[in-house]
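hey m, so remember when u said the tokens were messed up on ur end? i reran from scratch. heres the input so u can diff it against urs
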Amino acid sequence: MAVDTMNRPVRTKSRSSIPTALNTSNSVSTKRELFFRSDGSSKQHSVENGISSMRKEDRDMREREKKDDSAAARSNKMMDGYVGFANLPNQVYRKSVKRGFEFTLMVVGESGLGKSTLINSLFMADLYNSDHPGPSLRIKKTVQVESTKVLLKESGVQLLLQVVDTPGFGDAVDNSNCWQMIIDYIEHRYEEFLNGESRVNRKIMPDGRVHCCVYFISPNGHGLKPLDVEFMKKLHDKVNIIPVIAKADTMTPEECTLFKKQILNEIAQHKIKIYDFPDIDDEEENKANKSLKERVPFAVVGSNTVIEVAGKKVRGRRYPWGIVEVENMEHCDFIPLRNMLVRTHMMDLKDVTNNVHYENFRCRKLAGITSDGKTNKIPNKNPMMQIAEEKKDRIEKMKKTEQQMEQVFELKVKEKMQQLKDSEADLSKRHEQMKKSLEQQEGELQEKRKQFEQERAIFEAQHGDLRSKTLEAGSKEKLSLFGTMKKTMKP
């Protein structure tokens, strides 16, 4: 090895390998000459020996060349300064496989659209069975949020799958604000993760954030319902939404294509942001993403029944007019949906959740922006100063509260005084009315008395003699009776 003027190592070829190659080539040529010069009696035997020896020498030469190449490669690595960080992907792979993966999938839709069947079909596991029925079989009066965890293993890789379902969604007569429970659940998971990150002693905590929301659309053929539009508008900035047309076997291929176009037009019209496939430099992956994007919203059919078609067992549904195969891309979009959720875009869904939706929530939370859009400033000051300011704010609030209470008290006193004045005026008015009525009655009585006195005087004037006579007669009778009584009392 020589060194140039810049003190850099210069690679030089080894000279010992050149004569070796020449010698081997000369030996091969001499063998061939001897083979062609031999007589016919020993021709067959010499041919076999010559061919075997040639093959052996060629094999030995290739092995020596490989050894020389590997030695030269090792020497080149050492000269180029090979460190070994090219092995980092293997370390990350081993660590990831050992730790396992987590994924949270939320399914939202009305009852009876095949959510439980599709989830079982996606992961080929009985997440919902007779012991733990699906959300449609659990009758709920109001919207609730329930989660189910299951550990799946495939080829040594573990996946902790958490399925979040919403029984009761869209089943009530009045569905106003039925999405509020779902929003609260998603934000509560974000807040739990934020609190875990903000602790002094941070530990590796499970990721319970909702990474994907599969929204089931009823195959009515008339576009999105108002409930579908409002739900996606409320949640499109909080979670990755993937629209899915449920029970696509109820529509013809032409109807399904028109229905997809209508749904995409309404989504664009209402400015709803669904999950957007990332742009990748690789052409093959871009083609795959384009083919997946063309199938959105995915028209799916779910089935857990295995049937036999032409000697082949497939999962599907048997109808009187034919068989619908779940894993046939000509029948439905189940395979593209499964590939997108599990095989190709699961990590991208998690990255978008972490880097976009969770970061938006974190910024709003740290900036003090509440759910109604108001901003509460978070002071960045000394704790003692902050406590003093909070105390001052409380005192001011108490003073304002006292002033408000005094104002309310004064208003109530004024109202009471006004009521008393009104009642007093009413009483005085009633008193005057009663006084007038009594005076009127008294006047009438006086007039009646005067009239009675006049009538009495007239009567006495007319019947005065008769009265005197009756009085005298009565007195005489009394005297006669008194005299008889005296006589009878004498002995």
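this time it looks ok to me. The chain is about 55% helix and 10% strand. if urs says something different then somethings off w ur setup not the seq
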